[in-house]
Amino acid sequence: MQTRTAFCHLTDMFFLCGMKPILTITGSDSTGGSGIQADIKTISELGEYAVTVITSITVQTTLGILDFYDVPSEVVGGQIEAVMNDLQPQVIKIGMVRTTETLNVIVECLEKYKPRYVILDTVTQSSRGDTIIDETMALSIKKVLAPLCDVVVDNVNGNTHGQSCWFSSSLACYLNQGLSLDVAKTKADAYVKMMMARCDSPKGRCGELYEDFLSELQKHYRHASDVHFYAECLNVSSRYLAQVTKRVSGKSPKNIIDELLIREIEIQLKSTDYNVQEVAYMFGFSSQAHFTKFFKKQKGVSPSEYRRLLRL
């Protein structure tokens, strides 16, 4: 209770001293490496106070974005109105804007409240190559929002997760401290270099999980070819497992499973006298017809034809 009370007093003193908060309008990154979370960390680290408006919620891992939920534009507008009416930030940083409706709401608010500085971090794709907005939306932002901004940051300026957030948020801080735009940009560049050297972004267990997947596959491939089975073994979702295998090998989990299965089936057809039905049951197929369909899809010929061609 004492800690909470002390924090409230500190916040009251902050506003009584006449300092203005910085408003960041952007999406949420569930890994904490970019988006609203990175903005708050940067702004706080540089001694400023962040207030926020969330435009989108991402379903995200350290490997990339799985899905988006765009906050309804009226809710985005409500957030902006509440913050601007009450706290009157004079420096605004804008990041992820994915819908035309939200774009229009932001433009209306900028025209209404006329903050001193607006920084636009053009979030078109993530550092991992995920597409965030399409070309049409990017052009709309360039046409209607960019002209209202003092600085436009191209977020394709590096491969480090959160790099453009570090620059745009630190730039907002230095402008909020009364520095000129040129000096603020120089200091923001230096801040990004410091963060790059620190590089303390969280690392996922990509490589470890991939090796565990291969290990489980070796144990169970004769009777299990379903991706969900292996995801359950590893206690992860099928979507996350797919992210991992795609990042490490460029292949889906199903591709990897099928490649191992067909390789082992070929060995049996080449080196043993088991008939096709026996090989089918050996590898967990419910019927010879199902086995033949799978094999033909992978190799272009039936198991019997494959064996016949080997003997020519």
Describe this protein with a few key phrases:
6-stranded mixed beta sheet; 14 helices; 6 strands; alpha/beta; 312 residues
Which strand order does the major sheet show? 3-2-1-4-5-6
What sort of overall outline do the alpha carbons produce when their principal axes are compared? elongated
Q: What low-confidence regions span 5 or more consecutive residues with pLDDT below 50?
A: none
Portion of residues in beta strands equals 5-15%
**Rg from Cα:** 27 Å
Q: How would you characterize the largest beta sheet?
A: 6 strands, mixed
Report the structural category: alpha/beta
Q: Fraction of residues in helices?
A: 55-70%
Strand/helix succession? HEHEEHEHEHEHHHHHHHHH
Distance between the termini: 84 Å
The helix tally amounts to: 14
The number of E-state strands comes to 6
Walk me through what this model shows:
There is one protein chain. The chain is of the alpha/beta class and 312 residues long. It is built from 14 helices and six strands. The chain has helices at residues 2-16, 35-45, 73-87, 100-113, 135-145, 163-176, 181-198, 206-220, 227-234, 238-249, 253-271, 276-282, 288-299, 303-310; strands at residues 22-28, 50-61, 64-70, 91-94, 117-122, 151-154. A six-stranded mixed sheet has the order 3-2-1-4-5-6, sandwiched between helices. Helix 2 (35-45) packs across helix 6 (163-176) and helix 4 runs parallel beside helix 5. It is elongated. 30% of the residues are buried. The model has no long low-confidence stretch (mean pLDDT 88).
